[in-house]
Amino acid sequence: AVVSTQSTGERRLYQETWPAAVLVRAMSFFFGINKEVLPLKANLAVQEGRLQIANTDLAEAQAQLDEKQRELDVVQAKFDGAGYPGIRDKTPGGGRWSSFETGHRAECG
Fold first, then answer.
1. Distance CA 94, CA 87 (A)
2. What is the rounded (10 degree) CA torsion for 51, 54, 55, 56?
3. pTM for this one?
């Protein structure tokens, strides 16, 4: 049984305002649109799930990257603090050998 919350006068006004043919066309239009929208909504739900998984993977990768960056910063600080001579020199051989070469050339003539 269908329970109506409308009074008899409201139902009559509704039926007089909207003829059955108009209501049928409106319902037909609604179901036609709904037939197109439902698959799109389903696909949207699937894609949102994939996005959530991808965001989780991204967060894990970012955490790993942050950890490796911290490790690199520690090693870089040790390297910079050790002050290896000539390693950063842009000359071939790193500049460590420049004094040796100069002395060797002086000896050999």
1. 5
2. 130
3. 0.49
